[in-house]
Amino acid sequence: MDTTAIVVIIITTLLTTAAISGFVWFLFSKTLEKDFTLKNIQSIFNKHVEKAKFSSAINELKKINASHLELSVADGHETFFSRAGKQLTSQAKYSAIAVSEQVDLEALKEAIKARNSGMIDFKTFCQQAAKSGVNYWQVQVEGLSCTYFSLANKVIHSETYTDQNIFY
């Protein structure tokens, strides 16, 4: 067999393997998408976050194909995004609060520290974040990070998390 024939066989084999792998991933991700519901997500948060096990919640979110989530400080509604592009939005958690146009990074860091140590509850944290100029924050499930954004959609602060560094 000449070199060209061998190369053609190798390329054909690689392309066939890639196509099969892609199809298997497509079927697997569709199965995961069925579990990507607000009910399942809320169940995950109720089970883990209230017990200060945020990284456990993140691990379960990964299992249902979540890529990231965004929380609006103004009313507490959350938008969850799947890796396949699906988007789910929850109801508002509280009455609307005003978000300051002025960013105060030090006040935000103090609020994060107070929340992480359990000194303030979630709603108080959101109120303090709003006063600090936070419009929303985004949690990257894969990147294990949280980024806070201003009304101008500019990054105010970003951090990674662990169970000891809970910011939700």
TrEMBL record:
Organism listed in the record: Ephemeroptericola cinctiostellae
Name of the protein: DUF1398 domain-containing protein
Entry-linked InterPro entries: DUF1398, YdfO-like_sf
Cited Gene3D superfamilies: YdfO-like (3.30.1810.10)
Top-level taxon in the UniProt lineage: Bacteria
Transmembrane segments: 6-28
Keyword entries, A-Z: Membrane, Transmembrane, Transmembrane helix
Keyword field contains Membrane: yes
